[in-house]
Amino acid sequence: MGDEKADEGRQQVLETVERAMVQLRRSMTRRTLARLHERTDGPVLDPALADVVDAVEEGPDRPGQEVTVGLVADRLGIDPSRASRLVSAAIKVGYLRRAASQADGRRIHLELTQAADELLAVIHRSRHELYSHLMRDWPERDRAGFAGLLAKFTDELTHLRKQQS
Fold first, then answer.
1. N or C terminus of the chain with fewer C-beta within 10 Å?
2. Whose CA is closest to 118, among 83, 136, 93, 98?
3. Is the model's pTM score more than 0.85?
4. pLDDT, tens digit, for every residue of 70-95?
């Protein structure tokens, strides 16, 4: 009887996580954060370009690696040709620049520009304001716990995705 009750509890937790993840995915698909940013900070921002800038801002995954179009494609889960088009668009509007690799002059890596740094400051501020608003009634202990668990969850998801590629 105890095992059955524990199984029911685990199943209920999984169903709750599933429902929350579906809602989160739908929210991201509708680009809720980008729309909120536009309402609060004015300039219209192409969410796809913001995704590219975010991917480059993460920097390399490991020492000696450089941020390339291929890494951007991997992080965004898109094919390299689409990533190349998005990177070109981000370069055209001034958020990124191509630079010769320090390790191999024949290779090119991506760098953020000052315009990207300014854009990222606005994006980070907008996101932080939104998250702060959403958790405004949460005790500090819950905020910290949520941050740690969410980071752990997404790290596991990223690790699993990389294993499968």
1. N
2. 93
3. no
4. 999 999 989 999 999 999 999 999 99
